[in-house]
Specification:
The protein is built from six helices and nine strands. The chain is of the alpha+beta class and 266 residues long. Helix 1 crosses helix 5. The termini are far apart. Bound molecules: fe (ii) ion.
Length: 266
Amino acid sequence: MSLFSVDSGAVAARREQFSRSGFLVLSGLLPTPLRERVMREVDHWVDDGLRARSIAACVGPEPAQAPPVLELELPAHGELLTHQPLLEVVEGLLGAPFVFHHLHSDRHGPGTAGKPWHHDYEPNDSGDRGLHMVHALHYISGLDGTVGNLTLLPGSHHEPRGKSALAHLGTARQPGEIVVDSLPPGSTVLINSALLHARRPVPGTGEPGSARYFVDASYCQTGARWRPVKPYWRHMLARARDLGLGGGRWPELFAERHFTEYARSA
Ligand SMILES: [Fe+2]
């Protein structure tokens, strides 16, 4: 049994808390061997230009060519995306089935810029905001207050607004915010994707050479078709199915029918 497995009463309490606040901290969710392998893959992803090619495929002319390597094709990233204790928590929050939306992988250094207040909720074709999307924010090397802090505004997911409606505030402090600046390696913060959050820089405190390994993965409730964020989303889902990610336990996790066609944001 996973450390994060809980009985049905605790699942209900966790769901109620998540529904109210919009976030859940899963401290030390990832076992050391997995997080160490993910870190090596992130180095490869960033240092060998794979991340840059992945971004270029999303912003270049259409029709887009899929990049030569996807995040989920890196073996430890594929395992992270389908890490069973994580998906069991997601199942407890969203119910089953649910569908994978996308995965991003990056490495932040002491000089990495902040990210203004925003949310990451994508629309679905029913316009049904009652259907939830969650982001698993994986702090592979933890958080120690030296390379940007995660800042959250609990309860903000209840109020409809555009993704960047509060971007003019930058990363300025907001009443009621929570700052997450200390997490052990291999920790995950699961958020309702509509929750306002920011990455607040910590100027001048980063140790030379220190880095924050950061992977985020998102998942959606089924029941409507979601807007994909990568033009090569069909290829991405097909590769996940080809690789057998999740071992067949989550039959809808990589199903195309839960998505609309890709359309570049205006
Ligand atoms: Fe975000």
